[in-house]
Amino acid sequence: MNKASSIIGLVLAMAGIGIGATMEGAPVMVVLNVPAMLIVLGGTLGATICGTSMDRVKAIPKLWMKACNAEVFDLRGRVSELVGYAEKARRDGLLALDEGLSEVEDEFMRRGLQLVVDGTDPDVVAGVLDAEVEEMARPHSGGVQ
Q: How confident is the model at residue 140 (pLDDT cuts 50, 70, 90)?
């Protein structure tokens, strides 16, 4: 999710609600009922605080910013990079990958390639990388309930 799509989505949602209310003959200000908004938003915040720890509540702004500013993942680029490594290994052998390992920016990919270059059994490589993914996901799961 990026900032532009968030803003566009919010504007479209508000416009849809306002236009829908107007089409039904209600004034737009009925939808923007401040007491009702306070009840809904305040009640939601109160229920959230009751259902979790204060540390997680304090983390909400940080998690919100992280969600809004998430970097775009270039899947095609990553696949092309992996295909390049596979072609090099097939053409020149697995040890040929060793000389370029220091140039690999992604630490996770570098670790996986190092395991492959070291001759580690493919099932062990998969197990190690799966365990590492689970370990990386563990801190992030605190923000998801």
A: low
pTM above 0.85, yes or no: no
Nearest to 108 by CA among 87, 88, 81: 81
Whether residue 83 is found in the same domain as residue 62: no
Do 21 and 81 lie in one domain? The reply is: no
Domain end position, chosen among 68, 84, 118: 68
Side-chain-facing half-sphere of 143: CA atoms under 13 Å? 13
Together in a domain, 79 and 139: yes
Query: How many residues does this entry show for the chain?
Result: 145
| CA distances from residue 117 to 86, 101, 112 in whole angstroms, order as listed | 12, 10, 9
Whole-angstrom distance, CA of residue 66 vs CA of residue 140: 11
